[in-house]
Amino acid sequence: MAAQRSSKFLTTILLLGGAAPLGYPYWPFNFNGFSICDTCGVTRSRRERQLPLLDTTWRTTHGSEHDTPLSRLLQEFDRVPQHEHTWQFVRGAGNGTQCAIGRGQYLYETAQDERIVEFLRFLKKRESSEYLDSWISFALDHRTTLRCRSMMWRLERYPDREQAWWNERRSMDESREEAAQEAARYPRY
Question: Which of 18, 20, 57, 164 has the least CB density, counted as fewest CB within 10 Å?
Answer without folding.
Answer: 18
